[in-house]
Design brief:
This is STPAP polymerase. Pfam families: MTPAP-like_central, PAP_assoc. Residues 136-195 form the PAP-associated domain. GO terms for molecular function: metal ion binding; poly(A) RNA polymerase activity. It comes from Ardeotis kori. The protein has a domain at 2-170 and 178-221: Poly(a)-polymerase, middle domain (Orthogonal Bundle), CATH 1.10.1410. The longest helix has 18 residues, at 203-220. The chain is built from nine helices and ten strands. The protein is α+β, with helices and mostly antiparallel strands. Strands 1-2-3 form a three-stranded antiparallel beta sheet, with no helix packed on it. A hairpin with a 2-residue loop joins strand 4 (113-114) and strand 5 (117-118).
Length: 329
């Protein structure tokens, strides 16, 4: 399917056998150099790749990230990756060099100008000095949430070229034919300086991203993040990466999402146990409901006797009273 109105015209396709989707574009050299730049950053420090994956998974579980071609005002994976790289540039000492520093390190064979934009940087990570930063991966993840929880996205421009936030309006790039499109979240492409990578993000999504970062930062300071639960509850990174998993009572209550495994096609039929047994969907639903009662509503739940499995002829009546022994105060 051709999309000629896209910023970079593409042909979208889907591989039927695997279900994998992809895009085909022609003569998009900037995209190739952006990919090589991301690869260089990943090879420069072993913490880069897992930190990017962690943030992208967290954002997906919070409903903040999506496919940029889907039309929704969500952060795309490229924008999230650049946010992580910018954060690593601003650590003390920095984990990654700025794009301007990379340009100075580029050799003659690394020089590239595409569309008037200087895209010069070393192709080999061996040309970079190892970072003196010794922060752990978990510490970096927690700091990422802390930094962007109170970040003024609308009032400044995130610049990977300079490795710092630029005031508005940003200085005009001599190569730019048009100015940077400003919005609620301003994230400048590392090479094409007139391109705001997060231009599709609206005010609501930008605010939600900040609230979720604040909630995650608060959770990362809690004992539940650092210490294994004595009650068998999810803790540490596992809880952070659950859908909508923020610390109860922290951040935006509207972003707290609990998935209960009810299939739209099968409905309660999928939960109805087989004679003499209960399927995995039944126990998943019970666990989800127990989580809502215990962790969200702060009820005191006591385990009781399990109700007898219904016979083939019986059904679970709608609106029936809870079985005896299944108490929730």
């Amino acid at each position: 399917r051709a999309v000629p109105t896209a910023r970079r015209p593409v042909v979208k396709f889907c591989h039927k056998q695997s279900g994998l989707a992809g895009d085909i574009s022609v003569d998009n050299r900037l995209a190739l150099l952006n990919t090589r730049f991301l690869q260089l950053c990943a090879e420069a420090d072993e913490r880069v790749r897992p930190l990017v994956y962690a943030v992208r998974l967290w954002a997906k579980q919070q409903g903040l990230a999506g496919n940029p071609s889907g039309g929704g005002p969500l952060l795309n994976n490229y924008a999230l990756t650049l946010l992580v790289l910018f954060f690593l540039q601003t650590r003390s000492p920095p984990v990654l060099p700025t794009v301007a520093q990379l340009r100075d390190l580029a050799g003659d064979e690394d020089r590239a100008v595409v569309g008037g934009w200087d895209c010069s940087f070393p192709r080999d990570a061996a040309a970079l000095e190892p970072s003196a930063n010794a922060e752990s991966l978990c510490s970096l993840l927690a700091e990422f949430f802390h930094v962007f929880g109170d970040f003024d996205f609308a009032g400044q421009v995130i610049s990977l070229r300079e490795g710092r936030a630029l005031p508005l309006p940003p200085p005009a790039a001599p190569e730019a034919g048009e100015g940077l499109k400003l919005g609620p979240l301003n994230l400048q492409d590392p090479f094409e300086l007139s391109h705001n990578v997060a231009a599709n993000v609206n005010e609501r999504t930008a605010a939600c991203f900040g609230r979720c970062c604040r909630a995650a930062a608060k959770y990362c300071r809690s004992l539940q993040y650092r210490r294994k639960s004595s009650k068998g509850r999810a803790w540490g990174l596992a809880r952070l990466f659950q859908p909508g998993a923020v610390e109860p009572g922290a951040g935006n209550a509207g972003a707290f999402l609990i998935s209960i495994p009810l299939d739209a096609a099968g409905g309660s039929q999928r939960l109805r146990p087989e004679p003499g047994s209960r399927g995995p969907w039944f126990w998943e639903a019970c666990a989800a409901i127990a989580f809502v009662l215990r962790d969200v509503l702060k009820c005191s739940c006591a385990a009781g006797k399990l109700p007898a499995a219904p016979s083939e002829e019986s059904e679970l009546p709608v609106g029936s009273e809870p079985p005896a022994g299944a108490d929730a105060e």
